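User: Predict ATP-binding cassette, subfamily B, MsbA's structure from this.
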Amino acid sequence: MKSILRDIVHKYFSNFAFFYRHLRYRVFVVLALSIMVGVMDGLGLAMFLPLLEMVAGDTEVTGEQMGNLAFLVNGLQALGLSLNLSVVLMVMLIFFTLKGAFKFLEQYKSVVYKQFFIRNIRESNIKLLSNYDYYNFVNADAGRIQNTMSGEVQKVTQAFKEYMKLMQHSVLIIVYTVLAFMANPQFALLVAIGGILTNFAFNNLYKKTKGLSRVLTKSNHGFQGLLIQQVAQFKYLKATGLIRSYANKLIEKTYEIEDSQRKIGVLGAIMSGIREPLLIGVVLVVILVQINFLGGTLGLIILSILFFYRALTAVMQVQTHWNKFLSNIGSLENIEAFIEELKKGKERTGKLTLQQFSKSIRLEQVSFYYGDIPILLDINLELHKNRSIAFVGESGSGKTTLMNIISGLLKPTSGSVTIDGVDAKQLNIATFQKRIGYITQDPVIFNDTIYNNVTFWAPKTAENILRFEDSLRKASIRNFVMEEQPDKEETQLGNNGINLSGGQKQRISIARELFKDVDFLFLDEATSALDSETEKEIQDNIDQLKGQYTIIMIAHRLSTIKNADRVVVLNKGRIERIGTYKELIGESESFKRMVELQEV
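Assistant:
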């Protein structure tokens, strides 16, 4: 039974289920308030019938002409109230005042829950992306991630707004239809049938809007992907004169987006133009049928018309909001699929925590495949605490993949990795990675102050300031920051550290990793983008850190690894030889050849 219900919900109420997962009971709070708005409005309208009787000059007002709504008049009489003009007007005022109060609560709760929904979606996506497995991340579409995390959230928020309006007006349709049936069942049935038939006229337009929404979402992904690459490769594109050709690709995407949005707008305009005349035509035909063939008092017909006018207004609103919702359905479907992908691609990790690295990391028979392609094969290696080790080899030999496995970014296809004797699969890998300082060829610089770049936005306490200055000192950049910069640690570094030289950016990166109180320093070609003089200065800084940290290096410039405790020569994914720099020159022909080619 549960599986059947789940299938029904998935097939017919998947959108409602999505919003319910993020809002829970709040959805029903808004719907309950909408019901109360409709009920109060309907009861207030029903009191127009006694009012019409009084205006017509009836001396005695009864509920006979109100059908099943006669309980209103009977109830007032039971309370000992005589139905005069003042009482009727007062009761109407009470009903419409209550309607206003419920309407306020409905609108207020809708605003509050909308903000809650936005925050919930963003927070959920941020957490899921933070826990996303690195292997899955590097194989994902960067444009899609960017677009989904930013622009798509806004569109899903708009979809949520339209869907909530859709549900609220749907509730009003039900309320007014029920009241109309209570007043005049025959009239109500005819109008309901006519309203349902007119809805079929819009089905084809709905389908076209839904399809265009999906096309629009895909175009937005492509635009974001191209934009990310233009920003990342701006220097190259500008220097080579390709910037305008690339810009034309972006412009083509904007035309695609514009075309889809224009078509969606045209469909919306068509529906807006024909909706009201069609629905009013149905009511007019039903009035003629009721008077000429079915009979009935004019008062009941007027009351039914009042209810159906309200209901048809709600129907038009439902159709309007449904079409607007469908114009964002592509974004909703995309974000649902994106969330599922993030969940499925979640990093698998253990529960044990690593407080501090104390002994060694051991790799036994480790292999790694990318699909069917072998990258690493049968790696056996041990890394000891506070020792330095360098990985060298030709491009494609597996150096970066090996470092990624050691750092926990990638999981081996086979074999085992143990940290201080504990299988890495049993460790909460994040607790291990907090002990890592990672310095890459392209320094990571945030568009913020030097202090925030080094401390990663740590509070500016006396202790943190001391640690900050100590990190600058170890990275040999304290004088530059504290004496040469007018704003000292509050100096803004600009986009990607545009105000710094290459060496200064690298020292800021090193200072950040040292501030973190780490056990490891991973140096991924950390000096390869620097000139020889700056490289030597940075390398001297790194050499001074030997014995204080476990240092793992990847280097193409072999002059930077002369002082490493051990050097691992990789060749086509296998370890060819391990030894000191001097030992390998005598024992490894391939290593000796690399040294000779670089004239080290």
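The chain has a mean pLDDT of 82.
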